[in-house]
């Protein structure tokens, strides 16, 4: 809707611009632009004065009489010390040079049949699609598109007058219309004036009062500043953890070096050359790790520096004036949101594998080394042509001397880390340990401990828990045939019973570390043991029942505690089935006696409630813990033996 400008009260030497909006339709009958009525602004106008004498029109300017011409939009100029007549002449001239559609200076002005002038592009946008004649936007007289005539005089005059605004724009005014900047355009991200809002460029844009937009974006910037500070705090926390991790790693490296020096001191005459070699490897690893840590530390420092710069930039932006703050604030917000602390801490480990590659005959010459140590496996695997021979020899040695586990397992794991480098080799290692644990009854416990240690210390696979996964897959193959094995021939059942007892040992010894560092047992093994007990009790042959008794003596207390924590009554059901077997199954008298003893043991909380009051030799009659404390040994054919 065209806007007009009224002079100030009588006696004033300067003209004060006044913005007003007209109603739904112009005096000439032109309908109001959509959305104008809802955004109407009221002003208190001064009382009307007698209109001044008409200013002669410039040559070539045509238009309807002043009485039929609606108010025009007049862009406010800075106050100038001009006389009344000069101001009115400037107003009339500006009015004649303003298009009543776009409310801006004419661009390619054309005249239509009724004599009114408009921008060519404004007229073309107002035509009906596919229509012939169109009504004049001011007087509604019909005109034909073919009657458009360029108004060269008006175009030259517009070009002459327009440079008058090319000078410096005063603060707070629109550089295009010299109107006060009262609105903020969300799409263009800049302040605009009221005339800009009515233009075609901003017709569909979202506008907000400049004060409201200022408060809104200032609040967003302050919130972004807080978020950036939180990110910087997180980055600094990670940096501190990184420093602590490096310190721990340096201590481990120091301890490792001291340990190696002590070992090689005993063998200095034979191993001087090898000692220097391995120390060089450690130094190289140390340099590489330090280099990697320095790169990571530099990356963290860069993140922290970037966050500091963003925080300072956001703070400076938030302290700016409203117009400066609203100059594309979304760019700063977007950069702040995209600045993330993408960094993950690495677990620094000592990966160098150091062996003592000397012959056993040479080790015998070193004073202080016993024959047991000579026959141990700290001399690496150089004497073995294949991995299978090395692992099998170590497993046999561990079966004969279980006490050597603590002293030799670390070197065994380090040797495997240097040898086992493929999935096939890892699969072969799992199969060798599984066969040893299920074919030799006395090795089931030691095999479970070995599996637990290797699952945490083998570093040959990038996937966490790879050894444990292959082991559980191998056990699952045997587990799926449980029903057929429990009712098979004697040889099949014997192999099945060895697997059941190994799985029980594995459930007790295989530790799984959670995300928070807590140690738990494998739930999948707990479920598997329940189904294995069902298979054994569903086929109540003597050897199956004996295997069930051994399994419950081994894992009964742990299983019942775990089931109680989950609110399950599985142990009650198992004991009920055992009592039914005692009453109805055709098993031997000795086996029934074993089952009754097991029920009695469970009724005394698996021997964990009472203790012998006075010192005397423990017997099944005076010590409920007897069955729990007495270790079980087996002969080569699987028959259980007492400790004596």
UniProtKB/TrEMBL annotation:
User: Which SMART domains does this one have?
Assistant: BBOX (SM00336), MIF4G (SM00543), RING (SM00184)
Q: Where are the transmembrane segments?
A: none
Q: Cite the PROSITE patterns for this sequence.
A: ZF_BBOX, ZF_RING_1, ZF_RING_2
Record bears the keyword Metal-binding: yes
GO MF term (any one): RNA binding
Q: Which organism is it from?
A: Rhinolophus ferrumequinum
Give a short account of what the protein does: Acts as a coactivator in the regulation of translation initiation of poly(A)-containing mRNAs. Its stimulatory activity on translation is mediated via its action on PABPC1. Competes with PAIP2 for binding to PABPC1. Its association with EIF4A and PABPC1 may potentiate contacts between mRNA termini. May also be involved in translationally coupled mRNA turnover. Implicated with other RNA-binding proteins in the cytoplasmic deadenylation/translational and decay interplay of the FOS mRNA mediated by the major coding-region determinant of instability (mCRD) domain.
Q: Which controlled-vocabulary keywords does the entry list?
A: Cytoplasm, Metal-binding, Translation regulation, Zinc, Zinc-finger
- Complex formation: Interacts with the RRM1-RRM2 and C-terminus regions of PABPC1 in a 1:1 stoichiometry. Interacts with EIF4A.
Query: What is the recorded name of this protein?
Result: Polyadenylate-binding protein-interacting protein 1
Domain spans labelled B box-type: 169-210
Q: Give start-end positions of Low complexity composition bias.
A: 20-35
Segments of this protein annotated with the region Disordered: 1-38
| GO cellular component annotations of the record | cytoplasm
- What superkingdom heads the lineage? Eukaryota
PANTHER family the UniProt entry points to: EIF4G DOMAIN PROTEIN, POLYADENYLATE-BINDING PROTEIN-INTERACTING PROTEIN 1
Q: Where is the RING-type domain?
A: 99-140
GO BP term, example? regulation of translational initiation
Iron as a keyword of this entry, yes or no, is no
Which Pfam families does the record match to this protein? Answer: MIF4G, zf-B_box, zf-C3HC4_4
Which locations, inside or outside the cell, does it occupy? Cytoplasm
Q: Which InterPro entries match?
A: ARM-type_fold, MIF4G-like_typ-3, mRNA_TranslReg/HistoneTransl, Znf_B-box, Znf_RING, Znf_RING/FYVE/PHD, Znf_RING_CS
């Amino acid at each position: 809707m065209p806007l007009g400008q009224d002079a100030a009260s009588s006696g004033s030497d300067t003209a004060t611009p006044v913005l007003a909006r007209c109603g739904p339709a112009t005096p000439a009958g032109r309908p109001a632009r959509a959305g104008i009525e809802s955004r109407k602004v009221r002003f208190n106008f001064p009382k009307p004065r007698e209109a001044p004498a008409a200013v002669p029109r410039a040559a070539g300017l045509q238009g309807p009489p002043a009485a039929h011409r609606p108010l025009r939009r007049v862009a406010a100029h800075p106050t100038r010390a001009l006389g009344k007549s000069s101001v009115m002449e400037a107003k009339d001239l500006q009015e004649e040079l303003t298009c009543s559609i776009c409310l801006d200076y004419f661009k390619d002005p054309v005249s239509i049949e009724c004599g009114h002038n408009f921008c060519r592009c404004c007229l073309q946008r107002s035509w009906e699609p596919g229509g012939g004649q169109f009504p004049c936007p001011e007087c509604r007289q019909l005109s034909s598109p073919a009657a458009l005539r360029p108004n060269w005089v008006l175009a030259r005059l517009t070009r002459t007058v327009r440079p008058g605004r090319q000078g410096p724009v005063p603060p707070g005014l629109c550089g295009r219309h010299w109107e006060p900047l009262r609105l903020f355009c969300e799409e263009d991200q800049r302040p605009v004036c009221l005339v800009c809002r009515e233009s075609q460029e901003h017709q569909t844009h979202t506008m907000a009062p400049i004060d409201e937009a200022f408060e809104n974006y200032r609040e967003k910037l302050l919130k972004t500043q807080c978020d950036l500070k939180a990110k910087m705090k997180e980055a600094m926390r990670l940096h501190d953890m990184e420093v602590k991790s490096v310190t721990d790693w340096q201590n481990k490296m120091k301890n490792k070096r001291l340990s190696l020096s002590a070992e090689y001191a005993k063998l200095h005459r034979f191993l001087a050359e090898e000692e220097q070699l391995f120390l060089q490897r450690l130094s190289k690893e140390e340099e590489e790790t330090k280099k990697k840590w320095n790169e990571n530390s530099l990356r963290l420092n860069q993140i922290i520096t970037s966050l500091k710069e963003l925080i300072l930039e956001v703070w400076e932006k938030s302290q700016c004036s409203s117009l400066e703050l609203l100059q594309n604030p979304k760019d700063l917000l977007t950069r702040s949101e995209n600045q993330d602390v993408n960094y993950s801490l690495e677990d620094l480990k000592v990966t160098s594998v150091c062996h003592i590659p000397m012959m056993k005959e040479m080790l015998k010459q070193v004073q202080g080394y016993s024959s047991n140590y000579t026959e141990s496996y700290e001399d690496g695997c150089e004497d073995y042509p294949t991995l299978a021979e090395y692992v099998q020899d170590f497993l046999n040695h561990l079966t004969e001397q279980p006490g050597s586990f603590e002293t030799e397992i670390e070197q065994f794991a380090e040797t495997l880390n240097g040898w086992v480098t493929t999935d096939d080799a890892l699969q072969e290692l799992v199969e060798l340990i599984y066969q040893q644990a299920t074919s030799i009854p006395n090795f089931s416990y030691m095999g479970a401990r070995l599996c637990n240690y290797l699952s945490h210390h083998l570093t040959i696979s990038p996937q966490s828990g790879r050894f444990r996964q292959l082991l559980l897959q191998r056990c699952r193959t045997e587990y799926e045939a449980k029903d057929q094995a429990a009712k098979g021939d004697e040889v099949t059942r014997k192999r099945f019973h060895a697997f059941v007892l190994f799985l029980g040992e594995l459930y007790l010894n295989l530790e799984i570390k959670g995300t928070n560092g807590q140690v738990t047992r494998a739930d999948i093994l707990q479920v598997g043991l329940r189904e294995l007990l069902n298979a054994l009790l569903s086929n109540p042959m003597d050897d199956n029942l004996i295997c069930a008794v051994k399994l419950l003596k081994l894992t009964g207390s742990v299983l019942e505690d775990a089931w109680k924590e989950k609110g399950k009554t599985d142990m009650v059901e198992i004991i009920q089935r055992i009592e039914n077997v005692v009453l109805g199954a055709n098993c031997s008298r000795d086996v029934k006696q074993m089952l009754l003893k097991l029920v009695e043991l469970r009724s005394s909380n698996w021997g964990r409630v009472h203790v012998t009051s006075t010192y005397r030799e423990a017997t099944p009659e005076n010590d409920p813990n007897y069955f729990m404390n007495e270790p079980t040994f087996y002969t080569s054919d699987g028959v259980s033996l007492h400790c004596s």
